[in-house]
Design goal:
This protein is of the alpha/beta class. It has two domains: 64 residues, no CATH class; 184 residues, 3-Layer(aba) Sandwich (Rossmann fold), CATH 3.40.50. Helix content is 34%, strand content 27%. It is built from eight helices and 13 strands. The strands form four sheets. A seven-stranded mixed beta sheet has the order 7-6-5-8-9-13-12, sandwiched between helices. Strands 1-2 form a two-stranded antiparallel ribbon. Helix 5 links the parallel strand 8 and strand 9. The N and C termini lie far apart (47 Å). Bound molecules: zinc ion.
Length: 258
Amino acid sequence: MNRLWQRIYYLTPSILKRFFPRHYVHVLRWLGSFRSWYYRGDKVYCPCCEHSFRRFLQFKNRDGAQCPRCFSLERHRILWMFLIQKTGILSGKLVLLHFAPEYSMQNNFRKLPYVRYVNADLSSPLAMVKMDIMRIGFRENSFDAILCVHVLTLVSNDLKALQELYRVLKPGGWAIILSPVCAGKLNTVTPRFISLGELSGQGRKAFFTPRIYGSDYADILVQAGFKVKETDFVQEFSSQEISRFGFKEDEKIFFCTK
Ligand SMILES: [Zn+2]
């Protein structure tokens, strides 16, 4: 794919999502069905949409990352598999808060018979509740379970966000808070805001480099109050299964409880 088509490919969904949220969902469904047919096969299997394909698709610079049908990425497939195998989410009665809901996963949660599902996001038009993760508008001890995938890396104060997640989680409840963790780094690198004021005198925050977590990620979760169990869930699968499900071998699950 040349650069122009690549830009169109990546920009179109975000424009549709922002200005035509309903159309965006229809386009995703249509595109998912079409790609599902086009990439039909039996080499890989997506646990999120329970369909198999001849391959997963490239996403950004990663080969074999995205499900052609439901758009799940490696982390979503691992998380969904973890949820159904380790948490009893299919049969348990619980109130679930899902931050920054992914298209591939929210469809599954909505179908769970015993789960009262709430999703929230600061800006996504698809979210049920508009909310800043650093100022969650729910009472303390409101949720039995919380999911938050690759959000902390983008917020200005991650500890504040974590403390808010901890506050609204019920005692005895669990949370899975996933972030990109660079195994080679010891310490988390905090994000850098470059103010437009530096350039134009207006003082607006304009450029932002996402936070990169290091091997101290679990300590940061603990700092917010959580008890944390770091698991190499992916290693419970054979190498054939890892490749068939399109998992990332180094993705870890940080299972937090209150
Ligand atoms: Zn899928």
